[in-house]
Specification:
single chain; 351 residues; alpha/beta; Rossmann fold; seven-stranded parallel sheet; 14 strands
Length: 351
Amino acid sequence: MSAPIPTILLGGTGYVAGELLRLLAGHPQLRVAGVMSESRAGAQINEVFPQLQNAYGGLRFGTKENMLALLSGKVALFSAAPHGASAALIAEFIDTAELNGCALTVVDASADFRYSTADAYAAVYGHGHGAPEILDRFVSGLPEHVGATDKPHVGNPGCFATSLLLASVPLMELGIAGPDLYAMGITGSTGSGRTPAPGTHHPERHSNLFAYKALEHRHAPEVAGLCEERTGIRPSLHFIPHSGPFARGIHMTMQATMQKPHHADDVRDALADFYSDSPFVVVQDGTPRIKNVVGSNYAHIGVATDADTLAVFVVIDNLVKGAAGGAVQWMNRQLGLNETTGLSGPALAWT
């Protein structure tokens, strides 16, 4: 077995960063060499993430300059930096890597490289793109939906987008339903990030359930664009997200009118065949439950039909399959590793 590839993590103190560090601690082919946090530079990793115990020994958060100094040979880089800040930061690392002759592979967990054009990004996020000159070096989409690519870097889709794409892409590509798709998703409080805010703080969500950004969530245009890139058809997606009274997980229900009536078993078989080469996607009988995927990189999908109405149910862990796990899966692929490496652990179930 070859030596593990040195790995850098940018934006290292949020929930997604914590999950990346948890997953990478058990990865046999990636070795965390540096974790960037300007605000916590000098602090030990387990001071911010005590759940990691001593997985990283005395490793401490470093500055950008500390991380740039690691760019030599072959390096993997994950960015969990905020939307809007990640792109310019990544561009600096790519430029420095090229000057150093470093073979750098980037997977960005922010939204900055999920759109193919700067105009599309600006239309959704309301500000200019931080590094439009390198957009053409990134591919976006789910590993399950993107074939071989010559792009060296990846913009990983968002958490809601991941669950929506898992349902919408096969429906559109197989001609089962669409282009009008109606979806309702419930997400855990970790999806709102580490900093509490009114409406996202967990005490406000406990024993509570409410919709937010109804029909205007920014993952809807992301899904429409990525679905169109894969299928050639742009769906009309009507999406209503909800804040759930739990910490992690997403439960997505997508409804559509089928092109012609199908029995649920037939749709289930079609989806199972579509995902037959996707090790993390399980198409099951009945309706899936969040507890069966939380803590894992798995997605469970269920189906129901009534006459020409179709419902597809998807559950994922928003922090794993919807963020950190999806990013590691992509990095595995980009580095020529088995995409399940370091990710095959089962769900926690009781959280």
